[in-house]
Amino acid sequence: MTEPGARPTDFDLHGAVGIRLVGATAAETKAVRRQLGPIERPFEREPDIEIEYVDRIPPDGPLRAISLDDAGFDGSSFVILRGRFKAPVRVAIPLDLVGGRCRIVAEHGVGPIPLLVPIVNVTALERGLLPIHASAFTHHGRGVLATGWAKGGKTETLLAFAARGATYVGDEWIYLTDDGRMVGLPEPIRLWDWQLRQMPEFRARVSRSQRARLVSTRALSEVVRGAADAPFVRSTAGGRTLRRARPYVDRQLDVQIAPAQLFDGRIEADGARLDQVVFVESADVTGVLVEPIAGEEVARRMVHSIRHEWLDLWTAYLKWRYAFPDRPNPVLDGLEGTLGARLDRALAGRPSLSLRHPYPPDLAAIADGLEPHLG
């Protein structure tokens, strides 16, 4: 399945983590590119993570199931059997080596590699970069890191300041360096229909085909909602089916747009100095509430937010320990302590603000409430 003469493909995360694909098809390379962002560039050193694509993973005895059709193990390998959207895959991952040099073997046709992003981030942590679930931008020359629990408003804060001339550093995962800088990835930003409705200046930057898709999907969502709630349908099996389908339709009300397009070319490709931390939360409040918070408190809370983002990795590691109880991973076993120490070192003493807002947030109100505190 590999193209004849195909060369290995390298991805380089800010010089700290090198990922090499061996034997990948164009489609498999594209799937990894979507996972890691546009960091495809060659490097001269040995890879930290090598992913080899094969027709069939060599067996070492019968595969013994863990959580039927979810994972399994034989005499030497732990094999993930479920990928994105529960699609069947076969990917052997040596979880005792995560954080150091690690070789993953995937059978062709896998699509996105299971657990790849948390494996890369744990490796980055061991290589001197601190991964934090956040958005980052510069505003009037000041570097701002917006962090918090998933869906708390990090991207909304980024968008609110994009409309006021901020410069993009990153979204989703930000990497903090030991010398107080933050670097990101110029990967596409997901914009939801409700966000675009609030910010018509961004709507004009979305392609005509994307706008047309949003219009048709919104119309379908309204039809499904109306039919599901109709008195003569609501209590029927069809009504229950429509209510179950409604969240799936609503999840299609988004587009992806490149940061350079969204920020009109304002990109901090080499990162920026970290000057201000903003801890963002949805809350039962009226309006936007901004008040000081200790950087140490943000650090303590974010240990658990980051670990939650890597929950699939922890689940797989417990299965690994069941399969191979004599092959622990000291990096994963000590990760909470490592994260806590690194976060405390990076954020303690930093000027930090708590930003609480009702959900869904008013993006202009976020900027209005926060901007006076960033000077």
Write structural notes for this entry:
There is one protein chain. With 375 residues, this protein is α+β, with helices and mostly antiparallel strands. It has 3 domains: 9-126, no CATH class; 130-188 and 261-294 and 349-373, Rossmann fold (3-Layer(aba) Sandwich); 197-256. The protein has helices at 26-36, 116-126, 154-162, 193-198, 200-203, 208-229, 231-234, 237-250, 259-262, 295-309, 311-323, 330-333, 335-347, 363-370, and strands spanning 9-13, 17-22, 49-54, 64-66, 71-73, 78-82, 88-92, 102-107, 130-139, 142-147, 167-170, 173-176, 181-183, 189-192, 254-257, 272-273, 276-282, 289-292, 352-357. Strands 9, 10, 11, 12, 13, 16, 17, 18 and 19 form a 9-stranded mixed beta sheet that branches. An 8-stranded mixed beta sheet has the order 1-2-3-8-7-6-5-4. α6 runs antiparallel to α8. The longest helix has 22 residues, at 208-229. It is globular and about 60 Å long.
Provide the fold topology.
Layout: E1 9-13, E2 17-22, H1 26-36, E3 49-54, E4 64-66, E5 71-73, E6 78-82, E7 88-92, E8 102-107, H2 116-126, E9 130-139, E10 142-147, H3 154-162, E11 167-170, E12 173-176, E13 181-183, E14 189-192, H4 193-198, H5 200-203, H6 208-229, H7 231-234, H8 237-250, E15 254-257, H9 259-262, E16 272-273, E17 276-282, E18 289-292, H10 295-309, H11 311-323, H12 330-333, H13 335-347, E19 352-357, H14 363-370
Parallel strand pairs: 2-3, 3-8, 10-17, 17-19
Antiparallel strand pairs: 1-2, 4-5, 5-6, 6-7, 7-8, 9-10, 9-11, 9-12, 12-13, 13-16, 14-15, 18-19
Helix pairs in contact: 3-14, 6-8, 10-13
